[in-house]
Amino acid sequence: MKASEGLRVVVTGATGNVGTSLVRALEAEPRIASVLGLARRRPTLSLEKTDWAEVDLSLEGDEPRLARYIEDADAVVHLSWAFQPTHDPASTWRSNVLGALRVFDAVAAAHVPALVYASSVGAYSPGPGNGAPVSEAWPTHGWPGAAYTREKAYLERVLDTFERDHPQTRVVRMRPCFLFKEESASEQRRIFAGRFFPGWLMRPDLLPLLPELDGLRFQVMHTDDAADAYRRALVRDVRGAFNIAADPVIDTTALSVLLDARPVKVPSGAARGLLSAAWRLRVAGASPDLFDAVLKLPLMATERARQELDWEPSRTSMEALDAFLRGVRAGSGDATAPLTGRRVG
């Protein structure tokens, strides 16, 4: 497609948390002519520039269909990711790793000029002992105990080889922190807390105490701000990795202010034991291995994204968390299968 006509962008995982924000961001971008959103289930979400198609990246039989959708693309954004089932890591490996390999192979076969891939802070090795933020040069070996971090780290190595073998394709690796928005709250509650967790419990007057865990420090941003960074990476001639996160860093003190709750010291081992029991009983969605990984995540420096993408988050991390909690309490959702709003069950 000629530059004067605008870019044709294909987005995998377009009905999820980041995907719904990105396709909306691309609607307002004049350099984007059209968007094809790929998902396992066609949504009812209607946007002027966006068409939808169904494909299951975990299925080998869907490879020819995927290739047809990608063959004329000017850029592919690979967002598709399955967090569940955490009890079946072979299943998430098929969806996440083998699915990504199918996308990368289709991009290479079609000689697509640009590939923007959703990596994660979870791809990074544990941070330095002094807690200093790490740049994009920090090792990406993940944390071997959790399926999510293993898969993200593995795909970083795959892209190392892809970049070597296909230098004609501009590869961008976005490494965001935790991403929240009101419309994704129901999905994220189901994924991490379990489908039976009642969202209305997340009220300050019902949570007088907050567990304080040693080493719990992480970064958060609003999903719409992450989508803006993806948009900028699509239309600028940039390559490589970009850390994206908002301030301030979230710790127990910040959470206690947000929830108006008093911190109570809880040993990490005890918290992990309770989570492990709930996970084994299939009450909680998040695994104890993921809990371990979160405690080892480094903080990220974001200077490169701010300088080369001219990007700044429009909301603080506290505002992003507040939107998420508001959505959890209200059972908020969106017009896509993953983000359908549900209260319980």
Which key terms come to mind for this protein?
7-stranded parallel beta sheet, 11 helices, alpha/beta, 345 residues
Q: How is this structure best described in words?
A:
The protein is α/β, with parallel strands linked by helices. It contains 11 helices and 12 strands. It has helices at residues 17-27, 63-70, 89-110, 147-165, 185-193, 223-235, 252-259, 268-280, 288-296, 303-308, 317-330, and strands at 7-12, 32-39, 50-54, 75-78, 114-118, 170-176, 178-180, 209-212, 218-222, 240-244, 246-250, 262-265. The strands form 3 sheets. The chain has a 7-stranded parallel β-sheet, with helices on both faces. A 3-stranded mixed β-sheet has the order 7-9-11. It has a two-stranded parallel ribbon with strand order 8-12. The N and C termini lie far apart (46 Å).
